[in-house]
Amino acid sequence: MLDRNYVRENPDEVRAALDDKGVEGVDFDRILELDAEWRDLKARGDELRHERNEVSDRIGELKQAGKHDEADEAIATSQELKAELEEVEDRADELKADLDEAMLELPNVPHESVPVGDDEADNVERYREGFDDLRDLPDDVTPHYELGEDLDILDFERGAKVSGGGFQFVKGDGARLEHALVQFMLDVHREQGYVDVLPPIPVNSASMRGTGQLPKFADDAYRVSARQDDEYDDDDLWLLPTAEVPVTNMYRDEILLDEDLPVKHQAFSPNFRREAGEHGTETRGYVRVHQFNKVELVNFVRPEESDDRLEGLLSEAEEVLQRLDLPYRVLTMCTGDMGFQQAKKYDVEVWAPGDDMDDGPEEGGRWLEVSSVSNFEDFQARRAGLRYRPERHESAEYLHTLNGSGVALPRVMVAILEYYQNDDGTVTVPEPLRPYMGGQAVIEGHEKVGESAVGAGEAE
User: Fold this and answer.
1) Over the stretch 133-172, which tens digit does the pLDDT of each residue have?
2) Which domain holds residue 35?
3) Are residues 365 and 440 in the same domain?
4) CA dihedral in degrees (390, 396, 398, 403; nearest 10)?
5) 18-to-15, 47, 194, 311, 375 alpha-carbon distances in Å
6) pTM of this structure
7) Distances (CA, A) of 67 to 73, 75, 77, 79, 177
8) Run of H or E including 217
């Protein structure tokens, strides 16, 4: 949420943020009108309270002076002022509720260094890593969704049978590989000073509002329903779309101390999003799915440190890919592709050579986003009441929040299956993951189970 004083004093900057981020349907003039009317009512309320206090003092003086008729008139005036004050306060409360709700629709104002642009075509590539010494790949790299089914480590058909499209089973050595990645990432980030958090999976609406998922992204989230009297009603719980939500809200409406900062938490969790699968060819396989695992990095810092911490957070996410020796690139996101809540954002995209997409590098393949590293400045802090006290005798101030995936697992799995595959259809396990897989160096696949594996006739 933006500071109301900032909105009032910088309307042009806020209008520019709405335009540059492509946020539509916000009646900004109405927000300014609500704020102006609310301030007028608050001023009128202060005047009425002052007048009523003066009248109250006069009532006592009149009674002591024996001027009962005048005292009765003053009492009547006091009652009229009280009635008007109650009416003004009720209207002010209504306006404040409307204003608070409308303010939630305003996006964060982009940092001055963010490039202005309409969509992903206007993002700016900062650099690439890992392309100077690529490993030898098969002449025709098999896409992960075909390879995963051939090795029987990814099962999309049975996932759809159990839960619907966009869900999957990860099996055998595929599941072992993903578990290994989780433990590897957690170990890497512990070395970087992160403290582990195992968060609750359902989160309430206040938490979703605190990080900016509500109201804008309600349609993308999964709402939890509860059974009451043989009927299912919406409970005030959502399946978390990212561990950013519970971890950021751990300290909601609290005041941290200066010596507490910076706070660095990492959290592994499953994540649930309905929006997955809206991007054409990415609907196939393990790229855009409704449930996926991720290690999330969340930082709470002093405002003057957040710009530098963004660069540090980017490096911490990159280290996972560097240790796995996976080629990747880093993008500075433009205003139109940055997101509602962010002031500045970098995307880290790993290279997957299995599908020859239009946006791939010269070597073919395609880019897959595995981390969005974001500085929210005080936008989330204002929504969630996240403050710190610079000195124990000073007033509390809003801190800055940052987060980034450290990293999203499915797309790293895709990159490993495609980049580390061999001519014989096996997959080499990256060396840093082998200790987590009991020393296993190669994924050779499994015998498939069921009649479909051999054909109904042979099964008989």
Assistant:
1) 999 999 999 999 999 999 999 999 999 999 999 999 999 9
2) 4-103
3) yes
4) 60
5) 5, 36, 35, 26, 18
6) 0.90
7) 10, 12, 15, 18, 91
8) none
